[in-house]
Amino acid sequence: MASVLARRARGSAAAALWSAARGFASVGSDIVSAAPGVSLQKARSWDEGVATKFSTTPLKDIFHGKKVVIFGLPGAYTGVCSQSHVPSYKNNIDKLKAKGIDSVICVAVNDPYVLNGWAEKLQAKDAIEFYGDFDGSFHKSLDLEIDLSAALLGRRSHRWSAFVDNGKIKALNVEKAPSEFKVSGAEVILDQI
Amino acid sequence: MAPISVGDSLPDGQLGWFDENDQLQQVSIHSLAAGKKVILFGVPGAFTPTCSNQHVPGFITQAEQLKAKGVDEILLISVNDPFVMKAWAKTYPENKHVKFLADGVGTYTKALGLELDLTEKGLGVRSRRFALLADNLKVTVANIEEGGQFTISGAEEILKAL
């Protein structure tokens, strides 16, 4: 009995150490510490960029003290992203807020101006906050990047979603292929909150 | 790589493009430009103001005059992916002749020696604002802006040179 417990304790300690060293996203890890020094860029028009001196948003400002649902996708203006992924969250925003979620965030490896144009086209800016991971560093730190050069997109993000409570990842769903949309939608995460 | 200039030969490169049938293609510059008179103009970024409100519209509205003066192709390139270029092109429903080509990771822009680091503006490495006229791959006009200004790289200047 004691040996089983000891083995399990060793196992989870090792796992915790491994994920801390890797710094990638997994349930139980802290999203801000997994990506030290990384910040995101709020989607905005160029004029807003000039007015805010192109400021970036550190992760802790997004996640600390908040219940956040965040989802990432390969690219603005692409098929599944536009037709299914974003609408899923836009249409479920009331249910998410009713469960105590403070913000719903969409992140993609795009510049903030492209993202802004896209968010406005999808009329989703009221419900969802869009952030650009313009150089891919956020997704690289979380080990969620994927090379989509074959689709002429370059290094992008997987399709994924997560529920993050005060910076701690409570649920993480990553599609097996970016073209799929099975586990990363709003309905799935609503059950996980 | 020194910036391309008058007298140089246009390098070849592959750019991404959604064709008339909405199919994603890779197209080579040489296949579009060999034996022809082409305008190649570049912008720092899709969906940014000067690019969207001044530079691109200039070429769209002057396209007929440019074609009347013997220009076969008007090619727009930007360091954006083809999905973004397609969406941006859709915001110009009146456009008949300008082809919106995607230099996704900036390879062709670097081959032209025209890259511009706009990382601090949240854009990464992009293209300078420019307009080139090439006759059978030989560059006859090279109007390259400093920074993001819009002074010499418009359609008017190319029209004057034709």
Automatic annotation (TrEMBL), chain A:
<comment type="similarity">
    <text>Belongs to the peroxiredoxin family. Prx5 subfamily.</text>
</comment>
<feature type="active site" description="Cysteine sulfenic acid (-SOH) intermediate">
    <location>
        <position position="81"/>
    </location>
</feature>
<dbReference type="GO" id="GO:0005759">
    <property type="term" value="C:mitochondrial matrix"/>
</dbReference>
<dbReference type="InterPro" id="IPR037944">
    <property type="entry name" value="PRX5-like"/>
</dbReference>
<keyword id="KW-0560">Oxidoreductase</keyword>
<feature type="domain" description="Thioredoxin">
    <location>
        <begin position="29"/>
        <end position="193"/>
    </location>
</feature>
<keyword id="KW-0809">Transit peptide</keyword>
<dbReference type="GO" id="GO:0034599">
    <property type="term" value="P:cellular response to oxidative stress"/>
</dbReference>
<keyword id="KW-0496">Mitochondrion</keyword>
<dbReference type="InterPro" id="IPR036249">
    <property type="entry name" value="Thioredoxin-like_sf"/>
</dbReference>
<keyword id="KW-0575">Peroxidase</keyword>
<protein>
    <recommendedName>
        <fullName>Glutaredoxin-dependent peroxiredoxin</fullName>
        <ecNumber>1.11.1.25</ecNumber>
    </recommendedName>
</protein>
<keyword id="KW-0049">Antioxidant</keyword>
<dbReference type="InterPro" id="IPR013766">
    <property type="entry name" value="Thioredoxin_domain"/>
</dbReference>
<comment type="function">
    <text>Thiol-specific peroxidase that catalyzes the reduction of hydrogen peroxide and organic hydroperoxides to water and alcohols, respectively. Plays a role in cell protection against oxidative stress by detoxifying peroxides. Reduces preferentially hydrogen peroxide rather than alkyl peroxides. May be involved in mitochondrial redox homeostasis.</text>
</comment>
<keyword id="KW-0676">Redox-active center</keyword>
<comment type="subunit">
    <text>Monomer.</text>
</comment>
<dbReference type="GO" id="GO:0042744">
    <property type="term" value="P:hydrogen peroxide catabolic process"/>
</dbReference>
<dbReference type="GO" id="GO:0045454">
    <property type="term" value="P:cell redox homeostasis"/>
</dbReference>
<dbReference type="InterPro" id="IPR013740">
    <property type="entry name" value="Redoxin"/>
</dbReference>
<dbReference type="Pfam" id="PF08534">
    <property type="entry name" value="Redoxin"/>
</dbReference>
<dbReference type="GO" id="GO:0008379">
    <property type="term" value="F:thioredoxin peroxidase activity"/>
</dbReference>
Automatic annotation (TrEMBL), chain B:
<keyword id="KW-0676">Redox-active center</keyword>
<dbReference type="GO" id="GO:0008379">
    <property type="term" value="F:thioredoxin peroxidase activity"/>
</dbReference>
<dbReference type="GO" id="GO:0042744">
    <property type="term" value="P:hydrogen peroxide catabolic process"/>
</dbReference>
<keyword id="KW-0575">Peroxidase</keyword>
<dbReference type="GO" id="GO:0045454">
    <property type="term" value="P:cell redox homeostasis"/>
</dbReference>
<dbReference type="InterPro" id="IPR013766">
    <property type="entry name" value="Thioredoxin_domain"/>
</dbReference>
<dbReference type="InterPro" id="IPR013740">
    <property type="entry name" value="Redoxin"/>
</dbReference>
<comment type="function">
    <text>Thiol-specific peroxidase that catalyzes the reduction of hydrogen peroxide and organic hydroperoxides to water and alcohols, respectively. Plays a role in cell protection against oxidative stress by detoxifying peroxides.</text>
</comment>
<feature type="active site" description="Cysteine sulfenic acid (-SOH) intermediate">
    <location>
        <position position="51"/>
    </location>
</feature>
<dbReference type="GO" id="GO:0005737">
    <property type="term" value="C:cytoplasm"/>
</dbReference>
<feature type="domain" description="Thioredoxin">
    <location>
        <begin position="4"/>
        <end position="162"/>
    </location>
</feature>
<dbReference type="InterPro" id="IPR037944">
    <property type="entry name" value="PRX5-like"/>
</dbReference>
<keyword id="KW-0049">Antioxidant</keyword>
<dbReference type="Pfam" id="PF08534">
    <property type="entry name" value="Redoxin"/>
</dbReference>
<comment type="similarity">
    <text>Belongs to the peroxiredoxin family. Prx5 subfamily.</text>
</comment>
<dbReference type="GO" id="GO:0034599">
    <property type="term" value="P:cellular response to oxidative stress"/>
</dbReference>
<protein>
    <recommendedName>
        <fullName>Glutaredoxin-dependent peroxiredoxin</fullName>
        <ecNumber>1.11.1.25</ecNumber>
    </recommendedName>
</protein>
<keyword id="KW-0560">Oxidoreductase</keyword>
<dbReference type="InterPro" id="IPR036249">
    <property type="entry name" value="Thioredoxin-like_sf"/>
</dbReference>
